[in-house]
Each structure stands twice: as structure tokens, then as C-alpha cells.
Predict the structure.
Amino acid sequence: MRRGIGHGLRLGVAVDGVSLWRSSRWRAPAWTPLAEQAYAPDDSLHGDFSALGQALEQVLPAGEYAGWPLSVVLDDALTRLWQVDLPQGATRLADIEAAAALRFQALYGDAPGLWQSSGAWDARAPFFCAVPRALLAQLTRVALDRKLALIFITPQFVRSWNRWQGALKPGAWFGQLQAQALTLGVPREGVLHAVRTVPVPHGAGHYWMEQTLAREALLQGMDAPGLLQLCGAAPPDWLAPRAPGALICSAFAPPGVDGASSPAAQLALSGGRA
């Protein structure tokens, strides 16, 4: 396929499917669905992700997109996200990286060597994410075979946080709702202080959300927020007007793109085109 000026490819990778979209920076439509493919997920994140590799080969036919830029957004369930306290007396980046590896193993019990980690860290609250090396190997293999230029591979939460953190109101918490999981970004003094993911029960209403945020605030030693600013399709009850003093939930504008109903498609459109 001939690439137009300003066109690129965006791939959403869910735990059981992939969705490929064409983005257009200057011409309408901004998003065009190209292909979707389900795959049988591995039993654990320690698999070889060969089923994912086969799905990628299906949605990216050989010779179809040679030379196109490709960006990838991963389901947070395929990644690890964690915070690291700055070690006392630490003066080098290597000190923080060593603390991050120890914290990772304590939290998840996995050998760090099976994961590729990276940090977007502030010395006040270092933040790390990790992706299985086997997953990255499948993505980079197919991109190389198809002569694609990989622009970025990022977890959905990181993508959405980078896009919307500047729009957070004072005292608000950030939320990413995807596939019955709510990932909370807790800011403090202008930095990302904590990341917490909680499962969302079927039919969870505003009371559940309010109690969940109150509990998480208690765990962080903070006051409960008065506002949750959310990415994702929030239940209507969460967004309904409330009495003064109640927790308010507002949603960032959804993409509103036809064909974006599947989890993989919603991942692909996270955070816009930039």
C-alpha cells in the first residue's frame, strides 16, 4: 500500500487480539481500521508469544506496508508497572536501577532477565515499566520482516498518562479503565506518586468507585480525591451528577471512531495520533 503524506500505522495489542489502524495527521478521516485478528493467549507471560507473532503476520501482510512507521500500544495486562522509592544515599542512576530490579522481583516474583524494563523517572518518585522480552521479540521480528519503522512500544497506561497528565485539575486523580480493570495514577506535588490497578466487578457503581478510591488514598497516606478524571468507557452511573462533597468522575473525550469497539482497537486509539 502506498503511504500518503502524514500517514502512519498504529497497532493495539490486547491479551487475545490485535487491531491495526491507519492514522492520518492532516487529512480526514483521522483513523481508518485496517485489520483485526484474534489469537490464543499464552498461559503465562513467560511464553514465547508465537500465537501473537502469527496474528501480527496476518494483519501485516508481507510487502503491504514496507517503509511505514508503526507505533504499538500494549494492554497493561501484558506489562508490569511499579514505583521505586529512592534508596537512601543513592547518587547514581545505577543505584535506582538496582533498587527497581529488587522491587520488581519482590512484587511479581519474576526473574528480571525475562523482562525488558525502562524508566521514566523523577528522583522524587521513580516510575518503571517492563515488557516480556519474548513479546518484544515477536513485535520487532515482524516489523523487521515487513520493513516497518518502529516508532514506539508502550503500555496503555503510560500512553494515556503522557497524553492527559497536563489536563488534570488540581487534586484530581487519573484513571484508565480497560477490560474490567481500573488503573489509577496518583499524583502528588506534580509527579506521579503511585500506580494502582484494581479489578472492577461487573455492575460496579459510583459507591464502589468512591469506596475504592477512599481505600487507595488510605493506603497512600493521602486524602481521598474529590475528582477522578478517566480514560475509557465509564459506566453512566460513575458520570452522573452528584451532591456537593461527593466524588465526581469526569471522562476525557473518547475517540468516537467507528469500529473501535474491541479492546484491541481501543488500545490502538489510546492517547491520539501524536
